[in-house]
Amino acid sequence: xxxxxxxxxxxxxxxxxxxxxxxxxxxxxFALTDHDNRPFQLSSLRGKAVLVFFGYTTCPDAxxxxxxxxxxxxxxxxxxxxxxxxxxxxxxxxxxxxQVLKEDLSNFRINALxxxxxxxxxxxxxxxxxxxxxxxxxxxxxAKYTVAHSTTLYALDRAGRTRILFSYDAxxxxxxxxLRRILASSS
Amino acid sequence: MVKTRMRSMDLGVVALLGACVVSCAVLAADNPNVIVxxxxxxxxxxxxxxxxxxxxxxxxxxxxRSVISASSNDAAKVELHEMKVMSPGKMDAKDGMSxxxxxxxxxxxxxxxxxxxxxxxxxxxSMMPVAKIEVPANSRVSLAPNGYHLMLFGLKxxxxxxxxxxxxxxxxxxxxxxxxxxxxxxx
Lengths: 187, 187
What we know:
The structure holds 2 protein chains of 2 kinds. Chain A is α+β, with helices and mostly antiparallel strands. Chain A has 5 helices and 9 strands; from the N terminus they run αβββαβαβαββββα. In chain A, helix 2 packs across helix 5 (172-184). The longest helix of chain A is centred in the middle third of the chain and has 16 residues, at 62-77. The two termini of chain A are 35 Å apart. Chain B is elongated.
């Protein structure tokens, strides 16, 4: 009788376990140039959870907002912060040289790499991740052109697979919880 | 007789000049019914000389007012800008970004699996110059991240947390509004 009860309890506990995060179809390995002007391959980060988002350093709002949010996420992660790498991929390689990216990221306390490359290299990664951007001329402005860009924050597991897509208004709590799930996952 | 006539003419010229000075001063006077508070600017990355300014503009008059331009002795140029958010696929490439409502597909936070995967990039955001910022009568407008803001180009000195930046708003009735914004670190 005791065995049956224990068995039922065990089965119930197994059923209670959170469903695994789905492996999403977007994403995959890619090669760009990092903010130290070195070749970078996503697969070099195997074993770490990875956050990926697209932006540009002249962006006054969306990108600093995301980076500030991630600063708070890293603070919440505490000792797990070293297990999560953020990749900030520029969609404005004309202005965002490796040096500019590195200096921009120095404003934020996050474990991050800025990535840039040729337009063709960046467009390939944008397509892989289902992201989008457009250079819009603004000749009437001092900026000369602005860059419209998608705002999803992609969370990859330790095998480099995309598991979560955070929308722009995802909270610090939601992002932190999602990362903890990825870090705790065995697959 | 000649000396008296000349003195009368001199007095007339002086009176005319004085009237011009007074009328010009009135045209450029601060608007007592439009008040700005909570003004702040982001401390930009070390290599950047551009940043965004935010504030609350309160119109206490019975007439709507518009900010039509801005200037600053602390920057080479100030422009009025707006961050526009669009759902994916609705960008009008012909005229840049059409004004669309903020993305409210309800997909905040964690991925919703298949639905989110259809448009993995999420909302697109873009910064665009605008001709004016309207402040309705007896109301207020908040210039805040992800909405209206002033873009300051060519800052004349490095900013750090607590630095003050002075800006003057020019309104559609010819009046002005002085603003003192405090610099805030990005995170």
